[in-house]
Structure formats: structure tokens, C-alpha cells
Amino acid sequence: MDKDRLPLVVICGPTATGKTEVGILVAKELDGEVVSADSMMVYRGMDIGTAKPTLAERQGVPHHLLDVVEPDEAFSVALYQEMAEECIADIHARGRLPLLVGGTGLYIRSVIDHYRFVAAPDPALRRRLMEEARLAGPQALHARLATVDPAAAARIHPHNLRRVVRALEVYYQTGQPISRFQNLERDTVPKYRLWMFGLSICREKLYRRIEERVDKMLGAGLVEEVRRLLERGYNRNLTSMQALGYKEIAAYLEGEATFEEAVRLLKRNTRRFAKRQLTWFRHDPRIRWLDVEALGGPPGVAKEIITSVRGAFSRSQLATGETM
Fold first, then answer.
1. Could you count the other beta carbons within 10 Å of the beta carbon of residue 99?
2. Alpha helices, DSSP H only, in 113-232?
3. Does domain 123-180 sit in CATH 1.10.20.140?
């Protein structure tokens, strides 16, 4: 029954829409704690380029699943799913409201829906596939994926080499398409009682915000952050170092691009990433979209979310899952 499911607030949307600030404001008002749903904020020492909130910016709101692993440690969506579900259960057990906040669509789906992950990573196979991609190009691997798992190939961009390799890895290990293991069981009882909110801004203004955000990151020391990571021996081929901001600035630091070209590519790649995020989230009908500018910015968005959630539950009932 609906009342038997614990409540979970989800705040998602493209990069640079203000999700982090909104999540903090909502959590402060509703006795909540934030569970990050960002695939790059899990890495220690990668703060500026991931827009990880500082301790001061968190305003005393507990944040979970930040700084979980070192940049060269393996981390997967299956591990994230396990850790996030443990965090959510613990937050509820302490009588507080969990808020899942971030822009990594698959991470969010793994928590709110019944995804199953059963094929463990195979480092040797992965290295072989990466080497094939290096020699033949990512398009060749994507074409191969299209022959063995057309559904996955249709969902995964040909240049998203990490996901292409993972899909092939699962197929070669199990003989089955990855969709069989990332099984979205929509006809089963949902895991949580959800309030899902998506933050949106018109494309022109979003792109302007992205460019301003990149400039702010550079001013805050992004180049120095990437340089420190490289000096510590973190290879550019690591999943963590393929994050936006890190791969472009690393190319500049290693003489493969000018600073101006690196910045141009970073802004372009971030715009493209935001577009892909929006496409992903738009497919989920459970999301209620909120126009950030129409509501007066993050404080107005937070107020709208708080009003919506409080309209269904009292503060104490939010923690227990009981209906009014």
C-alpha cells in the first residue's frame, strides 16, 4: 500500500540549474538530509570541477555519498545503489527526510526503481575493449554493440565509451543484453513514495549559466586542481578523469590544447551534457518540472517544493511514511 512506502524527495535536472542550492534550502526547512546523485562527486579531491558544495555552502545540512572513493578506485552504479539505499534507510530511521539530489539519471533510477545489477566488472576484458577502442575508434565498438544489443546502442551515445564498454562487458560475460540486468520493473510496487521535481531553465539562459559557471570554476582554481591530480599520478584514462572539466584541462596541461581551446571545449561539452541530461529526465512522467526563473530562482523553487511536500504530509509523518 502507498502508506507502507517511505517518502523520498528527488530533485533532478540538467547541470547549472541550481539543484544543490535548492536541495539545501528544502532540507533545512523539512528536517532533511541530502543524498548526492552525482557520479563524479563521489571522488575525493575533485571538488571545483564537480561543483561539490563546500562545508559552508551546505549550511549544516548533512550530505551523503560525497568523497566516497579515491579517483583511481573502481566505483559502479551497483555500488552506488547499495550505498544510497543504506543512507536513505538510515536517514528515515533517525526520523529525518531523505532528499536525493543530482543530475546522474542512472544513479537516480537505480535508487527509485527496481534495477538489478548482476554482472561484476571484468578488468581484463575492459582493458581489452578499451584498447580496441583506442585502435579502431569508439564508433567501431558502438557498431559492435548495435549488433549484439540494439536497445542499449540506441540509448548510449557512440562517444560515451565508458557505457559502451560496460554494455559489451555485460554481454560478453553473460550472453545477455545489459537491459536484462538493469531491469526496470514498473509493474511492481515502487520502492518509495516519491516526490520528484525537475529544475528547468530555457535553453539560451541555461547555456549562458553554463558558460558563467565554467568561468567561475576557472577563477576558483580548476586548473590547479587538475594539475594536482595529475601530479599525484592519476591517469587521464581513469573514469574519474574523464569528467567534464578534468579531461579538457588535463589536455591543456599536457600540451595537447591551448588554454582557450580547452575552455571552449569545456563549455561546448557541458552544453551537450546538459542537453543529454534533459533528454533522459524528460522521459520520466513522474517528474514535476519547475521553471527556475519563473519561480524567482532557487529560493522560489525550494518554497514550491516545500509547499508541495507539506501539502501531503506533516513533518513527523514525513519521517515515518504515515499518511495524514
1. 29
2. 123-136, 138-148, 150-155, 161-174, 203-220, 222-231
3. yes
Residue among 246, 274, 208, 254 nearest 41 (CA) = 246
CB 16 within 8 A of CB 206: yes
| CATH superfamily entry for domain 2-116+184-320 | P-loop containing nucleotide triphosphate hydrolases (3.40.50.300)
Burial class (CB in 10 A: 0-12, 13-18, 19+), 285: exposed
Beta-bridge partners for 195 = 9
CB 164 within 8 A of CB 138: yes
Distance CA 269, CA 145 (A): 24
- The residues near 16 (Cβ < 8 Å, ≥ 6 apart) are 201, 206, 209, 210, 213, 270, 274
Give the position of cell 530555457: 202
Reported as a single tens digit per residue, the pLDDT across 241-257 is: 999 999 999 999 999 99
Looking only at the bridges linking them, the beta strands covering 7-12 and 32-36 are unpaired
Q: What's the pLDDT tens digit per position in 161-209? A: 888 888 888 888 777 777 666 554 444 567 899 999 999 999 999 999 9
The cell 517511505 sits on which residue? 6
The more confident residue out of 3 and 274 is 274
Domains of the chain by residue range: 2-116+184-320, 123-180
Q: How far apart (Å, rounded) are the C-alpha atoms in residues 236 and 290?
A: 37
- pLDDT tens-digit series, residues 114-166: 877 656 667 788 888 888 888 898 888 899 988 888 888 888 888 888 888 88
User: What cell was used for 82?
Assistant: 547499495
The CA-atom distances, in angstroms, between 77 and each of 40, 118, 163, 171, 289 are: 12, 11, 11, 17, 25
